[in-house]
Write a structure and sequence with these properties.
By secondary structure, the protein is of the alpha+beta class. It has four helices and seven strands, in the order H-H-E-E-H-E-E-E-E-E-H. The protein has a single domain, classed as Nuclear Transport Factor 2, Chain: A (Roll). Helices cover 25% and strands 37% of the residues. The relative contact order is 0.19.
Length: 154
């Protein structure tokens, strides 16, 4: 789970707020608030999305599940932030992303080195680098006692 308290700079906090929005399900609102209109989102092995509208168009067709079949049953997301560092207008993160289904199975778990670029206090680019073998990984077993209702109520 993303902990906003680890941020040491305003840009680090904004970076963490974007990751947290993925967990909380309010990514569109946070993109509008935190990112430039020409925000670029690049992921290893996927088409680069240039501009907020391109990102919203991608969300409208199922998000990245339209390109990564293993994500078709994803219901929620979490991220483990391992390291966060910044210099000027750049924030670097090392994290492990988790893409969960309704049974509590972790469908895809990329270990990511990410770079966020800022302009005038807003995120203008997010570039995530990882091994695309995760697109073909086997999901974990269901978590005993997992409740999607409890997860979303947190």
């Amino acid at each position: 789970m993303v902990n906003l308290d680890i941020a040491e700079t305003d840009n680090e906090r904004r970076a963490l707020e974007l990751f947290k929005a993925m967990e909380d399900g309010d990514l569109p609102d946070k993109i509008r608030a935190l990112c430039t209109d020409d925000f670029v989102w690049a992921n290893s092995g996927l088409k680069t999305l240039a501009g907020q509208q391109a990102i919203f168009d991608q969300m409208a067709v199922g998000g990245f599940s339209s390109q990564i079949p293993i994500l078709k049953t994803m219901t929620h997301f979490s991220a483990d932030i391992l390291y966060l560092a910044s210099r000027g207008e750049i924030v670097f993160s090392e994290r492990i992303d988790h893409h969960w289904d309704a049974d509590g199975r972790d469908l895809m778990t990329p270990h990511i080195a990410g770079v966020m670029e800022f302009r005038n206090g807003k995120i203008c680019a997010l570039r995530d680098f990882y091994d695309t073998a995760c697109y073909e990984q086997e999901p974990t077993q269901s978590q005993p006692g997992f409740s999607l209702a409890e997860w979303t109520a947190r």
